[in-house]
Amino acid sequence: MASISPKHTKFIELVANGINQDKAYADAIAKGKISGNAARSKGSTLAKRYAKEIQEHKQLVKQAINNATSTAITEMAEKNILSTAERMEMLSKIAKGEVKIKKPFVIAGKIMEYPSEPDHNDRTKAIAELNKMDGSYAPAKTETTITDTRPPSTVTMPDGTKIEI
After folding, report:
1. Could you say which of 25, 51, 108, 134 has the lowest number of CB atoms within 10 Å?
2. For the segment 44-97, what is each residue's pLDDT rounded down to a tens digit?
């Protein structure tokens, strides 16, 4: 849009953003000093002239909105996902019994969830998960070296040759 005047660029942007052609013409070009019929006619003419540019601008706006939405969703997801340290802290609190956890109870024939102290099973599971996270269950790597401590043996072949084994 380098060779397009600033007024026409404004018209293109307005139409691409959903403003009708006569209103866009009146706002961008005529600055409101035009009759409705004249604005409609001239707006239609400009819209035809810049149809390609209007479509390109619509695509740019759509792409910008999609990028902004994607970024916002990513940022929201990152805020809602616990980091490893946060998960380890939560599991540690459960293992120590410092935080209440929701457990199902049957009350008057209905299953309800109420916060309660972690029991032995909950604490054991929290500790097991922490052990997995920090690699406590990983097999220990050991290096083994085998040395032959047997004394050398000599074998005599039928032709009289001696071989040391």
Report:
1. 108
2. 999 999 999 999 988 988 888 888 888 877 777 777 777 888 889 999 999 999
Q: Which residues pair with 154 in a beta bridge?
A: 164
* pTM, to two decimals: 0.43
Task: Scan for tokens 């003419």, then name that residue.
Answer: 45
Say whether both 62 and 119 belong to one domain. Answer: no
Query: Among all chains, which residue has been given the structure tokens 């409101």?
Result: 32
Give the integer Cα–Cα distance in Å for 128 and 94: 12
**Which alpha helices (H) appear in 81-159, and where do they start and end?**
84-96, 120-134
Q: Most distant CA pair in the chain: distance in Å?
A: 124
Q: How far apart are CA 11 and CA 54, in angstroms?
A: 9
Residue 147 lies in a domain: no
Residue 1's pLDDT band (boundaries 50, 70, 90)? very low
Q: What is the dihedral of CA 142, 145, 150, 152, to 10 degrees?
A: 170
Which residues span the domain enclosing 124? 84-134
Nearest to 64 by CA among 17, 103, 98, 101: 17
Q: Which residues pair with 162 in a beta bridge?
A: 156
